[in-house]
Amino acid sequence: MARTHDFGKVAVLLGGRSAEREISLKSGEAVLDALRRQGVDAHPFDPSEQPMEALLRQGFSCAHIALHGRYGEDGTVQGALELMGLPYTGSGVLSSALAMDKWRTKLLWQATGINTPRSILLEEQSDLDAVIDELGLPLIVKPSREGSTIGLTKITDARELPAAWRLAASHDSMVLAEQYIEGMEVTVAILGEMTLPLVRIQTESGLYDYEAKYVSQQTRYFCPSGLSAPEERAIQAQALQAHKVLGCEGWGRVDAILDKSSKPYFLETNTSPGMTGHSLVPMAACAAGITFDELVVRILELAHVG
């Protein structure tokens, strides 16, 4: 592990102006505290409160990105940091933008043989009956470029589809209708070239939506996952491939659902996942013997240089 003073003055980017601002503030505070405990000269920086160029004026040498969603996880902040010549954690501009766009993620995954649920771009003038004929019921309707399952609806009746589209469209002009896969939800955390132990997620409703993530007290997490070692290794290998196909690097998290035959269907890659003490990547790291403080420093060691 690098000597912590070698990092110089580190900006922890947090908050921002996405729909995930409140979650980002919690992640950022946790990252900031961990870096400071490890002796890193770290300071909070909220891009919604001051311009990005202030990073240079204030003498920062690199950025630890704890932003989630748009204007933080979608390549925009990454591009600004590259223009300023500041190294930053996580994936680069193109891979961040691709991973944020679930539709384009799926196109790349399908082209490279990575299994993902079938989907259709949904527009106001779409033939809804044809969409249901193609994907079946139930199905998932969600914004293509939003995080934390914001704007997501599971529908079981064709009459629910217009309202689900309107909700998703209120968050993004691109709306995805996606085949619903019934099964076990898992997530694979990635740190450099290493995959961490799987986390298996069990929800009361069977859907890991915003309510299950941030509100419900009934959501349960299992790490170790309970899968056999060969099953887990196979899913980890496929998740790492899915991550790399998008050009992602540094660290991240790949989400999947295992159907009744344990076949994985990959849903999305998160290039700046949650980093509170209760988030999934720290949970997987803990199972691998990596403390939260060690994890935060390792992520910083992997900082991207444009």
Description:
There is one protein chain. By secondary structure, the protein is an alpha+beta fold. It folds into three domains: 4-88, Rossmann fold, CATH 3.40.50; 98-115 and 182-296, ATP-grasp fold, B domain (D-amino Acid Aminotransferase, Chain A, domain 1, 2-Layer Sandwich); 119-179, Dna Ligase, domain 1, CATH 3.30.1490. It is 34% helix and 21% strand. The protein has eleven helices and 13 strands. Strands 8, 9, 10, 11, 12 and 13 form a six-stranded antiparallel beta sheet that branches. A four-stranded antiparallel beta sheet has the order 4-7-5-6, with helices on both faces. It has a three-stranded parallel beta sheet with strand order 2-1-3, with helices on one face. β8 and β9 form a beta hairpin. It is globular. The model has no long low-confidence stretch (mean pLDDT 93).
- Point out poorly predicted stretches: none
Shape: globular
Rg, alpha carbons: 19 Å
Percent of residues in beta strands? Answer: 15-25%
CATH-derived topology of the largest domain: D-amino Acid Aminotransferase, Chain A, domain 1
What is the assigned CATH homologous superfamily of the largest domain?
ATP-grasp fold, B domain
User: What would you say the CATH architecture of the largest domain is?
Assistant: 2-Layer Sandwich
The beta-strand count equals 13
Helix/strand-derived category reads alpha+beta
Distance between the termini: 22 Å
Number of helices: 11
Whole-number mean pLDDT: 93
Percent of residues in helical segments? 25-40%
Sheet having the most strands:
6 strands, antiparallel
Count of discrete structural domains:
3
Along the chain, the helix and strand elements come as EHEHEHHHEHEEHEEEEHEHEEHH
CATH class of the largest domain: Alpha Beta
